[in-house]
Specification:
Blueprint: H1 24-35, E1 40-46, H2 49-63, E2 69-76, H3 88-93, E3 98-102, H4 111-132, E4 136-140, H5 144-155, E5 159-163, H6 172-183, E6 186-189, H7 192-200, E7 208-210, H8 215-219, H9 228-234, E8 244-248, H10 256-273, E9 276-280, H11 288-297, E10 306-309, H12 314-322, E11 326-329, H13 332-335, E12 345-348, E13 361-364, H14 370-380, H15 396-405, H16 430-433, E14 436-444, E15 448-455, E16 460-467, H17 472-492, E17 495-504, E18 507-509, E19 514-517, E20 528-529, H18 531-538, E21 542-546, H19 547-558, E22 567-572, E23 576-582, E24 585-586, H20 617-621, H21 623-635, H22 654-662, H23 666-690, E25 694-698, H24 702-716, E26 725-728, H25 734-745
Parallel strand pairs: 1-2, 1-4, 2-3, 4-5, 5-6, 6-7, 8-9, 8-11, 9-10, 11-12, 12-13, 14-17, 17-21, 22-25, 25-26
Antiparallel strand pairs: 14-15, 15-16, 18-19, 19-20, 22-23, 23-24
InterPro entries: ATPase_NBD (IPR043129), ROK (IPR000600), UDP-GlcNAc_Epase (IPR020004), UDP_GlcNAc_Epimerase_2_dom (IPR003331)
Subunit structure: Homodimer. Homotetramer. Homohexamer. The hexameric form exhibits both enzyme activities, whereas the dimeric form only catalyzes the phosphorylation of N-acyl-D-mannosamine.
Protein name: Bifunctional UDP-N-acetylglucosamine 2-epimerase/N-acetylmannosamine kinase
């Protein structure tokens, strides 16, 4: 389309002004230019129940404007198969004339059958397109049938309008969707991110319409319809709203065996959860036949709590998910359409992991145990979340119709790609191919500020250390300076930096990247947004977490905690901190102060802690506490023993106390034993609360405490908790490795 007929593009879905088109007279001018007010002949091809729900609103819109359009409907794919509900009938019920029915599915439901189905469609489609001679073919989404449609139309010099391009899901569908994008001449996308992806794929900005999802036009107008009769018809007479589940799970064609196992675990979890459940049969992708066998093996079709159906009409399906207690599975409708109602969703596996989602979606990416899925059901069922309009505002169809009217058929058919400028042609060499994926790790300690380049294997490639400045401005400035130097050096070291991970003392909101308030050791470090300035300067994603949590993540990825489901890490250094891993995931708590293990109180009359309380573990066992006791002994001339000497200007520290104990100073040894006992009592409290299978002691004092802690556990812990393993960390630098783990192995999205 030429710039002479296209006004400026709209700036967002749902804005107050339509900036794409100035007025209707523009459209009439284009139609006159196309030739004596000739109507635009539009072919809509639908392949299955899912794409029809998106295409039907457009089809109704086209049919309602016969002065502008002629509509031809082609039906193919699983629409025409009895096992999948003969869903072509709902097209007839919507009063659309079906011009052509094409049987294109080769049965078998495996990878070879999918390829053969594409081939069969490619054989049959040319004759249909030759007879129809459409001006434009509308193709939706990312199915293999749609790829055959787009390929046929492109090779026959027919313009293609692709709906829902630019999105990212996480399976082979991505490859098919992007392949259709490259064949299509015009694009209708649903979200701002999808629009940016299309632009990044070198598509012409003027041929992209950010309209929103057409199905939302129906979704957002359907909530108030009578729904109880629909619930009774599909779920049962005695079922109440918000007290049933809708399950819709499809095979993942890139990992069929795992997706079948995941489906089996899902059904087991749903049976155990004991709620009325509507299960929809999977789509026709490779692996669906095996999934149906799993359903029948478990007796789902005859189970009193389950209704298994091949198809539900879209308008009724909307009401069912809008009033469900939960939707579970891996269908795109769960992460897209269901968000319009705020219904809780459990997204299983990786099939939709790349989609934009509302806060109603809980991802169970590694759905490898029944217990994990069951726990997710307990977390989500019956919740109510804010309604999301990520994918549309209910006005997509009017925008799409205006877009269609603006198409100039006199313009050259050959599409043009908008490639970014290339400064020079650099041949790829072996160093680039072998580039090491790495993270920038930042450790903000009470004394030093450290930055390191850390590889995926946990190797610290290079480390930079500076004294930690006392003021906020100086500290932020130094962090940026050191990170930029390290990022620049990473190029020379053949390391690709994936992001920045920051470990800092104090309470941190990892979702926002904000230090809420810090320890007294780091001044001017409360309510500090670390993510924004660093991300803006380096153009990299940034993660931030508490140093104790980072130590636990380091152990999970690189240390003793690797593969352990439940463990606790305790850092023994200047202060006492820690992190808790439960069911392989880090616990942050409701206000991000979980695992403040140093402030477990072990004595009501103990020494004062820096937190203001008395008797905390940190008041006994931290480096600061030992330094305090060492100074007391030194002031009373009770510290030094034979073989020890302290220079006049030398500061007394915990090191001197440990040295004195080793050389036979009974008072020093007693202080260390008291400190170790306090730490041990804290560990016993942790065992009785969290029941981990492993406790990892980390930091410079860990080796001095480990045997005392084990002894306290033997004496004080319940019998059932005595079997816990207590080990000393073998990681040289858990703070930096943990910060790197934030980038390499962890994200702030909701992953369960």
């Amino acid at each position: 389309m030429g710039s002479n007929v296209r006004p400026r593009r709209q700036q967002g879905v749902g804005g107050p002004h339509e900036l794409y088109f100035k007025n209707l007279s523009k459209q009439k001018q284009i139609m006159e230019k196309n030739g004596n007010n000739r109507k635009l002949r539009v072919c809509v091809a639908t392949c299955n129940r899912a794409d029809y729900s998106k295409l039907a609103p457009i089809m109704f819109g086209i049919k309602a404007e016969p002065q502008f359009f002629e509509l031809d409907v082609v039906v193919l794919g699983s629409h025409l198969i009895d096992d999948y509900g003969n869903t072509y009938r709902m097209i007839e019920q919507d009063d659309f004339d079906i011009h052509t029915r094409l049987h294109t599915i080769v049965r078998g439901e495996d990878e070879a059958a999918m390829v053969e189905s594409v081939g069969l469609a490619l054989v049959k489609l040319p004759d249909v397109l030759n007879r129809l001679k459409p001006d434009i073919v509308i193709v939706h989404g990312d199915r293999f049938d749609a790829l055959a449609l787009a390929t046929s139309a492109a090779l026959m010099n027919i313009r293609i309008l692709h709906i829902e391009g630019g999105e990212v899901s996480g399976t082979i569908d991505d490859s098919i969707r992007h392949a259709i994008t490259k064949l299509a001449h015009f694009h209708v996308c649903c979200t701002r991110s999808a629009e940016q992806h299309l632009i990044s794929m070198c598509e012409d900005h003027d041929r992209i319409l950010l309209a929103g999802c057409p199905s939302y036009d129906k979704l957002l107008s359907s909530k108030n319809k009578d729904y109880m009769s629909i619930i009774r018809m599909w779920i049962g007479e005695d079922v109440k709203p918000r007290d049933y589940i809708v399950a819709l799970q499809h095979p993942v064609t890139t990992d069929i065996k795992h997706s079948i196992k995941m489906f089996e675990l899902t059904l087991d979890a749903l049976i155990s959860f004991n709620k009325r459940t509507l299960v929809l049969f999977p789509n026709i992708d490779a692996g669906s036949k095996e999934m149906v066998r799993v359903m029948r093996k478990k007796g789902i079709e005859h189970h009193p709590n389950f209704r298994a159906v091949k198809h539900v009409p879209f308008e009724q399906f909307i009401q069912l998910v809008a009033h469900a207690g939960c939707v579970i599975g891996n269908s795109s409708c769960g992460v897209r359409e269901v968000g319009a109602f705020g219904t809780p969703v459990i997204n299983l596996g990786t099939r939709q992991i790349g989609r934009e989602t509302g806060e109603n979606v809980l991802h169970v990416r590694d759905a490898d145990t029944q217990d994990k899925i069951l726990q997710a059901l307990h977390l989500q069922f019956g919740q109510q979340y804010p309604c999301s309009k990520i994918y549309g505002d209910g006005n997509a169809v009017p925008r799409i119709l205006k877009f269609l009217k603006s198409i100039d058929l006199k313009e050259p058919l050959q599409k043009k790609f908008c490639f970014p400028p290339v400064k020079e042609n650099i041949s790829q060499d072996i160093d680039h191919i072998l580039e090491t994926q790495s993270a920038l790790a930042v450790d903000l300690g009470g004394t030093n500020l450290r930055v390191a380049i850390v590889s995926m294997k946990g190797e610290i490639v290079k480390k930079y250390t500076q004294l930690n400045p006392k003021t906020y401005e100086d500290r932020i400035g130094l962090i940026l300076k050191m990170c930029m130097e390290a990022a620049s050096e990473a190029v020379n070291l053949n390391c690709r930096i994936l992001g920045v991970g920051i470990s800092t003392g104090g309470r941190v909101n990892p979702r926002e990247g904000i230090v809420l308030h810090s320890t007294k050791l780091i001044q001017e470090w409360s309510s500090v947004d670390l993510r924004t300035p660093i991300s803006d300067a380096l153009h990299l994603p940034v993660w931030v977490d508490n140093d104790g949590n980072c130590a636990a993540l380091a152990e999970r990825k690189f240390g003793h905690g690797k593969g352990v489901e439940n463990f606790v890490t305790l850092i023994t250094g200047t202060g006492i901190g820690g992190g808790i891993i439960h069911q392989h995931e880090l616990i942050h708590g409701s206000s991000f102060c979980a695992a403040e293990l140093g402030h477990i109180v072990v004595s009501l009359e103990g020494p004062e802690c820096l937190c203001g309380s008395h008797g905390c573990i940190e008041a006994y066992a931290s480096g600061i506490a030992l330094q305090r006791e060492a100074k007391k002994l030194h002031d009373e001339d009770l510290l030094l023993v034979g073989g020890m000497s302290v220079k006049t200007e030398e500061t007394i520290s915990a090191v001197h106390l440990i040295q004195a104990a080793k050389l036979g100073n009974a008072k020093a040894d007693s202080i260390l034993r008291t400190a170790g006992t306090a730490l041990g009592l804290g560990v016993v409290n942790i065992l009785h609360t969290m029941n981990p299978s492993l406790v990892i002691l980390s930091g410079v004092l860990a080796g001095h405490y480990v045997n005392i802690v084990k002894d306290v556990i033997r004496r004080q812990a319940l019998f059932s908790a005595e079997t816990v393993d207590v080990v000393v960390s073998n990681l040289a630098d858990p703070a930096l490795l943990g910060a790197a783990s934030l980038v390499l192995d962890y994200s702030t999205r909701r992953i369960y």
